[in-house]
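User: Before I run my own analysis I want an independent prediction to cross-check against. Here's the chain; please return only the structure tokens and, at the end, one sentence I can use as a sanity check.
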Amino acid sequence: MKLDVRILRDSFESLRPRGDEMVDKVYSILFHRHPDIKKMFAKTDMTAQRKKFFDTLDELIKHLEQPDKTLSDLLILGNSHVDYGVKADQYPLVCDALVEAMKTVAGKQWTPKLDAAWREAYAK
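Assistant: Structure tokens:
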């Protein structure tokens, strides 16, 4: 299935003004649902972490049509996550938290189509 770049970009841009709130909700949801993951962030500056999360998402959205521009960064990021002890089965948990946070912040503007598009993009 081909990514719907327009819907991903448009929805991200509509969320951008509330980006801090959205990313804060990602971690709030993730830590509430999976307290064991919170332990992995015990020594993390969460203000800096939230900024990194948003900036990474922003870069990915900018280069959806040119994934090779972010591939090396994603490989480095993936390797660092392995070093932090992240397991493959935890990535879907982050996806769920991200989509739920976006849905919460977007409110009535969130649709099943947006939900599916973001889950598809995250899976790629």
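Sanity check: Helices lie at 5-15, 19-33, 35-38, 46-62, 68-83, 91-106, 112-123.
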